[in-house]
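Q: Please design a sequence for this.
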């Protein structure tokens, strides 16, 4: 009971008053005065918006009521069940986002047919009428209408009705990327409908959230490279809308231009030479479009990357010889919304000749289960666990109780030293140093305090062959990993996550050591 109370205390104490206030208000309102989509509403006016070309999405609609979402396929026999829950809520959400309207070869007839099917019984679209799916769906619908320059009045009217629901449900109880997505959707509604209420709400949300959520070095503050790419695409779509249509949102346009440039710079800096991004925190393959695709879209709209230094995000990149390494010395994310955070402090990812060698495990699920907790846990990252205790108390799918706070001790070219508070409560401390010396990567770990067991983990990308040459010396393809100061080192298997609901076996090295471990990675 005391542990549970402590967990709740450390989880709730970081919440902003606005989150608590709206959490209570929305729960009471949903019980006694639920918001429903208004019937018979007519859009007073709209403009036939135009857009510059934008990237196509992944192919998720396979025809004949067959969908492949989150790597799980389902066919609806008679009509589409938009509330289908057989694969969990995230799958249902994706069904209701309508991203597939922008997949290759999507015709007007097919897309409109799907929209009509959704609208046929819109009052009973339970999950689809939550604010987050409303936000993504309304953007996708307006983009689809703009591409085909067809604006059926019945669809326009029900678009307007959905915006009436969204204006009553901005996600102030969650904040973070959810509220920012609400703001982008309201921006589309404001321009499309030339509506003053939508305009004011969009301005208020976007000004507040863009200023807070985009850090000084351009990273999105939840520190997930995957979500950074998704939100950069959304920002580019908003900018695309503003530069091509009539509106009174010049201040928003200027702010978007500034923030997009920062986000472009950060993404280009974080990208490996082969176009990959590290899968830190909640990141996985197949959700965001390829970073190069988004940067090409940005370039088409007038943005090109500019040199920058990684700073506030806590990520640092080393490039030396044929090596590329990105280290994570950043916080768990915004203290009041760390839902996408992992126990990955002082972890790193290593590429050699453009090929991933040491990788972040990634994620395969958002379900609230033991797999989700394991994938967020310390032992799933290339860092150190002390006494079997997690760096941060990740729980409940998207919760964090006690959380580690990082501190960068020394930061210069090809040298980084950092520590964190994740084990202070058990009287222990972990410090890690990365350095480049004579073309090799050297990593040193120190642990202090009441240490019973220290474990360092190195997760290798699938198909990377690892074999022991001698005690403490391992061949990793055409590299050598050498250990000094360890007690034992074992090659184990783990499940790498190439996407949601996808797992594949790969190798990792588990190293038990005392108070000081040296690791050197060199070309063989």
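A: Design:
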């Amino acid at each position: 009971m005391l542990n549970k109370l402590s967990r709740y205390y450390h989880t709730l104490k970081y919440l902003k008053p606005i989150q608590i206030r709206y959490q209570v208000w929305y729960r009471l309102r949903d019980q006694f005065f639920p918001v429903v989509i208004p019937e018979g509403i007519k859009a007073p006016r709209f403009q036939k918006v135009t857009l510059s070309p934008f990237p196509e999405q992944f192919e998720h609609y396979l025809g004949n009521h067959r969908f492949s979402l989150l790597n799980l396929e389902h066919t609806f026999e008679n009509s589409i069940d938009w509330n289908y829950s057989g694969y969990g809520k995230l799958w249902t959400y994706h069904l209701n986002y309508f991203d597939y309207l922008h997949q290759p070869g999507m015709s007007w007839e097919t897309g409109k047919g799907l929209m009509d099917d959704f609208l046929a019984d819109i009052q009973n679209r339970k999950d689809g009428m939550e604010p987050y799916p409303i936000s993504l769906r309304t953007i996708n619908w307006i983009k689809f209408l703009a591409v085909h320059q067809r604006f059926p009045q019945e669809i326009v009217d029900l678009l307007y009705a959905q915006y009436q629901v969204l204006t009553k449900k901005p996600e102030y109880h969650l904040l973070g990327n959810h509220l920012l997505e609400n703001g982008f959707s309201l921006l589309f509604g404001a321009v499309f409908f030339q509506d003053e209420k939508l305009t004011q709400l969009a301005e208020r949300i976007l000004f507040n959230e863009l200023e807070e959520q985009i850090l000084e070095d351009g990273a999105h503050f939840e520190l997930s490279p995957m979500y950074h790419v998704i939100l950069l695409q959304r920002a580019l779509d908003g900018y695309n809308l503003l530069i091509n249509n009539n509106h009174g949102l010049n201040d928003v346009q200027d702010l978007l231009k500034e923030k997009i440039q920062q986000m472009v710079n950060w993404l280009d800096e974080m990208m490996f030479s082969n176009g990959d991004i590290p899968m830190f925190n909640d990141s996985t393959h197949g959700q965001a479009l390829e970073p190069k695709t988004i940067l090409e879209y940005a370039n088409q709209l007038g943005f090109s990357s500019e040199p920058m230094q990684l700073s506030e995000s806590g990520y640092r990149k080393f490039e030396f010889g044929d090596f590329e390494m990105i280290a994570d010395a950043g916080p768990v994310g915004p203290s009041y919304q760390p839902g996408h955070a992992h126990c990955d402090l002082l972890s790193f990812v290593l590429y050699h000749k453009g090929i991933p060698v040491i990788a972040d495990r990634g994620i395969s699920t958002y379900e609230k289960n033991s797999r989700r907790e394991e994938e967020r846990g310390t032992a799933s990252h290339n860092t150190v666990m002390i006494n079997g205790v997690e760096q941060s108390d990740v729980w409940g799918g998207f919760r964090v109780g006690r959380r580690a706070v990082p501190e960068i001790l020394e930061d210069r070219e090809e040298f980084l030293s950092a520590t964190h508070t994740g084990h202070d409560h058990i009287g222990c401390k972990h410090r890690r140093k990365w350095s480049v010396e004579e073309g090799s990567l050297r990593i040193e770990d120190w642990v202090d305090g009441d240490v019973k067991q220290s474990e360092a983990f190195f997760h290798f990308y699938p198909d990377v062959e690892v074999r022991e040459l001698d005690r403490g010396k391992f061949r990793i393809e055409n590299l050598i990993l050498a250990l000094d100061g360890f007690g034992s080192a074992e090659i184990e298997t783990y499940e790498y996550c190439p996407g949601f609901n996808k797992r594949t076996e790969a190798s990792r090295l588990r190293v038990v050591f005392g108070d000081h471990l040296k690791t050197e990675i060199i070309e063989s």
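Q: Thanks. Anything notable?
A: Residues 53-169 form one domain. The mean pLDDT is 96.
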